[in-house]
Amino acid sequence: MKGFAIAVDTREIDRGLRELKRQIPYATARALTMLAKDAQALVREKLSEDFTIRTTRVGKGIVTEMATKRRLVAMVGSLDKYMAQQALGATLTGKEAGAVPRVGKGLGRPTKRSKTLPSKWIGARLEKAEAKSEGSPIKRRKGKHSRRRLPFFVTFPGGRRGLVKRKGKDRLPLETIYTMPGRIRIPVRWPIGGRVRRAVAEKHALRVAMAMEQAVRTAHSKSGGWKQSIRTW
User: Fold this and answer.
1) Is-contact 122 98, C-beta < 8 A?
2) By C-alpha distance, which of 28, 74, 11 is closest to 215?
């Protein structure tokens, strides 16, 4: 029988396969890193479903750590400690429990979705009030007989403390600006783990295929290509 045969140089194939084997760790790291980026994008996108987002800071704090050929693990997480507490749950006491602003005109936060301005932070309030203990600090205006009442601390029934101000010129009523719970329990409310698992499940096949395709191209290039020769008999 006469015809055409395609003969492949097996030495070139062996060389290419050896190079491909060397590329596998790189391909794996590349796939893991791409999946981490996919997870990061999904977690950022869904933040508004889990929290009231007032600034871009929370989203920017969600970062990734790329995988390498020697460390085949990619990471997705937040730089902010308070976000870890939302993901894992926590119990805070003392100063860690912080202060909770009341919502309303002239209070710690004008509306629920608004950002608390630095001038409204409790530290700024305390500096203005010069309040170091319970009482009614009064600041006299220079050259005038009028006086301005400033915020001050009180202890509520049950032991909680708060920063309050008088609503008018009289001693009462008082209006609470911040409350300091002293102890708070943060439940697990941020499903970052579920978001990451979803992103990996949706993108795994695509990212692995893309990484392996790149690995094959690199192996083919570095091995000099797989040559073919054609002869007749």
Assistant:
1) no
2) 28
pTM of the model: 0.69
Close Cβ partners of 14 (under 8 Å, ≥ 6 residues apart): none
Place of tokens 């091995």: 223
Of 45, 86, 85, 39, the C-alpha closest to 64 is: 39
For 7, phi then psi, to 5°, come to: -105, 135
Cα–Cα distance for residue pair 62/51, rounded to 1 Å: 14
Average pLDDT score over residue span 91-113 = 79
Q: What is the pLDDT of residue 73?
A: 96
Peptide bond into 187 cis (omega under 30): no
Rounded distance between C-alpha atoms, residue 90 and residue 187, angstroms:
7
- CA–CA separation, 222 vs 2, rounded Å? 36
Give the CA dihedral 135, 140, 141, 142, nearest 10 degrees: -140
